Amino acid sequence: MLPYGRQSISSADVEAVTAVLGTDWLTTGPAVSRFEEDLSAVCGGHRAVAVTSGTAALHVAYAAAGVGPGQDVVVAPLTFVATASAAALLGANVIFADVSEDTGNLDPDAAKAALTSSTTVVAGVDYAGHPIDADPLRALAQEAGALLLEDAAHSVGGTWHGRPVGDLADLTTLSFFPTKNLTTAEGGAVVSTRADLDAGARSFRNHGLVRDKAVQRFPDEGPWHQEVHAFGLNYRLPDLLAALGSSQLTRLAAFTARRAEIHARYDAALADVSEVRTPSRREGAEPAWHLYPLRVLDGRRRELFEFLRSREIGVQVNYIPAYWHPVFADLGYRRGLCPNAEEYYSQQLSLPLFPDLTDADVDRVAALVREFFGHGE
Question: Whole-angstrom Cα distance, residue 124 to residue 108?
């Protein structure tokens, strides 16, 4: 089965991880600090906090933003459920705002209409790797006294009007799952443009422990003493995985370029197939494409999915609207809430896309799509 996504591991990656095993630090050591510095370098020079997953990154970022009961968080629904559930776990009221019809990203007008006097965070998602429409989203968040969070699980290495992902929002969350644009096996990070948000993220990912005697309440307890002033969790990324991440980052530009080549090859091969829509890209966007989200028209998405799976092509669907999950339905969210997101989902099919995919593989997938719709050569 040709998967829709797969990690690319080199001998240098293996050597980087193996080297850590010979040191005194398997976690909380220098490889973590180095990885955070390496991430900062590709995210506009802003502070990065490594954590154990993309979901952990969202939880940490919302906590750093002070999200809690009585507060509203505006969220794009065309995303993995964690973008919304991480805020709900902190007690926030999640308000879903619809996406733009072309990119599947949070629509600024819909987000503005969803704002309330209790809005704390506006959370956009870089769907498939295409950056959010950052300028209007940042402006409306600031006007509402809220923070802009960019869920960039799909898009590290991309740019929007020349600015790198990580430089577009107050808080940016990254994911390093194996199918993502670089991997640490499991892992993620929070990038923040403000020192107070960075401090909050670092505290929450480490149980909320306070070791600085200048701010401890009982600094004379002893040299071993540490305190918890606010609850946190253990979301620390081990040095083993951080070392893998630093090694992967040396190839991020090559990964991004190859993903763009594959994306363009699909575009060219399917340009004349009227039964589908190829992905949109807005002027000023240089996406780090994580997905190739083909849109299948006339209600034939499932039929094509099953056809390709029967030919050993591991296509996938990304994602059902987050509020369709029973956990949100049980809270009163109803289908029909975000029509653009629901239509996008009804058409979406992710074709295989990863750096080691060969041109021959791309051509085979495209030929099967063409065959299905009667566009054989």
Answer: 9
Q: What is the pLDDT of residues 119-175, one digit of tens each?
A: 999 999 999 999 999 999 999 999 999 999 999 999 999 999 999 999 999 999 999
Q: Catalytic amino acids?
A: 180
CA gap 91, 167 in Å, rounded: 28
- The model's pTM is 0.97
* Among candidate residues 345, 348, 355, 377, the one with its CA nearest the CA of residue 364: 377
Q: Which one-letter amino acid corresponds to residue 113?
A: A
d(CA 147, CA 66): 10
Class of domain 252-372: alpha beta
Residue 269: phi and psi, rounded to 5, are -70, -25
Domain positions in the chain are: 2-249, 252-372
Q: Which two tokens stand for residue 301?
A: 């998405």
Provide the CATH number for the domain formed by 2-249 in this structure: 3.40.640.10
Helix (H) or strand (E) run with residue 228 in it: strand 227-228
The Cα 107–Cα 340 span in angstroms is: 10
